[in-house]
Amino acid sequence: MILRFICMVVGLTLVSTGLFAAGIEESIHKIREKHEQLKRPVDLFLDKEYSRAADGFKAVLQGFELEGNQGMQAMASAGVGHSMLHLGKVDSALFYYEKAYILAKGVEPDLAGNMATAVGEIHGLRGNYEVAIEYYKEYSDYVFEIGDPYFYPSSLRLIGQYFDQLEEADSARVYLDKALALYELSGDKRGLSNTYSSLALHHERLAEYDKAVAYYLSQLETGGIENEANRAIGHLNLANVFTKINDWEKAEVYAVKALAICNQLDENYYKGTTTAHVLNTLARIAEKRGQDQKALKYYQKALAQYQKTKRTPKVITTLRNLGNHYEKLVQFEKADSCYLTAVKLAKNNQDSKSEVNKCLLALGVLRFKQGRLKESLSLLEEVATELKELNEPVLAQRTYFWLSRCYEETGRVREALGSLRKSGELKDSIYLIEQQRVIHEKEAKYERANKEKEIERLHFQNELHQTAIIQSNRQRFFLVMSVLLIGGIAVSSLFLYRNKRKSNRQLAEKNQIISQALSEKETLLKEIHHRVKNNLQVISSLLNLQSKYVKDPAALNALQEGRNRVKSMALIHQNLYQDAGLVGVNAQEYIEKLTESLIQSYQIDNDQIILEREVEPLKLDVDTIIPLGLIINELISNAFKYAFAGKKKGKIRVQLKSLDNGLSLKVADDGIGLPVKFNLGQSNSLGYRLIEAFVKKLKASIEFNRSAGTSVSIIVPEY
Fold first, then answer.
1. Which of 186, 298, 595, 627 sits CB 3.0–4.6 Å from 694 for a disulfide?
2. Full-prediction pTM beyond 0.70?
C-alpha cells in the first residue's frame, strides 16, 4: 500500500518491489518497541491520524536531540518520514528519511537499511535513477554482509532496473543476471517472476522482442506471480509486445486472456486501472484490424473505467483516442464533444501541457474538416505559439501542415507557403532523428554481437591454451619417464655403487608423500571448518529472517538468543580455518569478536555500558573454547538484558588467564546484582541451565559473588 500511495502522489506507475513496504512495516513496529516515548505517536500512526502522529514524532525528536541519543533520533525521524509520506508530502518524507539514514548508520543498522531503501525508492519513482542506484548499492552491501537470503537479490534487481532506465544496458544486464542466478539457486518463485519481468522489459527497450516474449512467458510459467491482478498485467505485457511487431492476432489473444482475469477480480482501484489498460489495448488492436465498432465499444468502456478510478491523464488520452475514432467514423459532433472535454481536463491538470496542445490540435483539425475555418485557424495558431517553447517536433510538424491547409483555404498564400516549408523542415528533421535512432540501435546490436563474439573468441583461446598446457605436460611427462628409464638402466648397472643413494632417495620420497598427506589433511580440515562456519551463518540468517515474521516479544527474544549462540560457534570455526596451524583458537581474538558481535546485536551504546577485556593470547582447542564461548555469550547477554535496569551507566569486565591450577574465566558487572535466593541448580532460565551443563562438560567449578554487582568465576582444571 505504501508504494502504491507514492505512485499516485508522484504520478508514476511502478510495480511494487516489496522492499520499501516491508521495510516501513518492520520499521514502525520496531520504533514502537524501542522507547516508551515513541509509543504514543506510533499508535496515532497506526490509527491513521498521520498529521498528529507527525507532530508527536517531531516533539519526541526534539527531546532526543537535546539528550544526544543518536539511535532514538533516527527512529523518531523515520516516524516523521512515514507520517509525511501518508500525508502526500513526499519532499518532507524524503528529508526525514535521509536524516534518519544518516543518524542510523553505525548505531541502528537495520533501520539504516530500511531508510536507504525508502530514499532509493522515492528517488527512483521521481526519475533520479543515479541517486537511487547509489542508495540501493549501499543497501545491497548491507544485506549481503548480514547474509539476507531475500533482500539481497531484490536489491540487485532494482539496481538493474534503474540502470535500464538510464539506458545503460550492459550494467543493467549484469545486475539482472546476478539477481536471476540467486533466485534460481534459492528457488524463490516470486523473485524469479519479478526478475523475468525486469529482463523482459530490458529486452523490450532494446527492441529484442523475441527475448522479451520469452521472458514474459517464463514469468507467467514460474507460478511466482503474487496475485491475479499481476497475472493480468503479465498477459497485457505480452499483448503490447505483439502490437509492437504488428502481430495483432496474438496481441488480441493475450489481451482477451488479461480481460478474462480482470473480470474475475474483486472490485477495487487496481482492478479498475488494470481493466482500463486492457480495454484500451483491445481498442487499439481492434482499430488496427479494421473492427471499428468493436474498437468503439472498447474505447468507451476504457474511458468509463479511467473515469471511475479518477486517472485524469489516462482519461484525457482516451478521450482524444475516442474522438479520433468518432472522427474516423465521420461522427463529428461526438468527436467534438470528446475533444472539448479533453481540452478542459488537460488545462485543469498542470502537468498536461503537452496533452493540451495535442487536444487543441485534434480540435483544430476537426474544425477544418467541418468547414469552420476561422475557429480552426485560431486553435492551430494557439498551438503553434505554445510549441515554440516546447521540443515536440512531431506535434509541431502536424500543426504547421494543417496551418498551411487552413491558410490556403482562407486565401493567405504567403502564410500557407511558410507553414508548409516549416512542416517540411520538421518532417526532414524527424526523419533524420528516426534514422539516427535506427542507426544507434543497429550499432548497439552490432556492439553487443561483437562483445559476445569476443567472449566466445577468448573462451576458445582459453581452451586452446589449456590444450597446449596439457600437451606440454604430456611431453614433459614422457621426457621425464625416458630420463628415469635411462637412469634406471644406469642404476641397475651400478647397483652396488648406488645402493645407498637409492635408499636415501626412497626415504626422501616417502617423507614427501607423508608431508603432502599432512598438507592435504590440513587443507581438508580448513575446508571442513569453513563449511561448518558457512552452515552456521546460514542458520543465523534463517533465524534472522524468521524473526521478521514473529510478533510475540518472547519468541523474538528467544530467536535472537538462539542466533547469538549460533554466531558464537561460527566465530570459532572461522578462527580455525583462518589459523595457519589449525592447532587451536586464539582466545584473545575470539572473545574480542564475540563481545563486539553481542554489542551490535543488543545495540549497546558504548558511552553507557563499557565492556573491558583482559584476555591472555592463549591457544585453546575446540572442546574447550566452544563451551567457554557459549558460557561467555550467556553471561554477557544476561548482563546486557538485566544487570543495568534503572541505571544509566555500567561496566562489564571479562577476564581469561592461565593459572597454576587451570584456566580461569571471570565475568563481572557493577549492575544491580542477582537475587539473594538465586541458585544455579534450581534456576529455570535456559541460559543458566546451559551454563550449568557446559561447566559440567568442562569438569570445572563455578562461583557467584554478589558483593558489588554480579561476578561469576569459573576454573577449568584441565584444558
1. 627
2. no
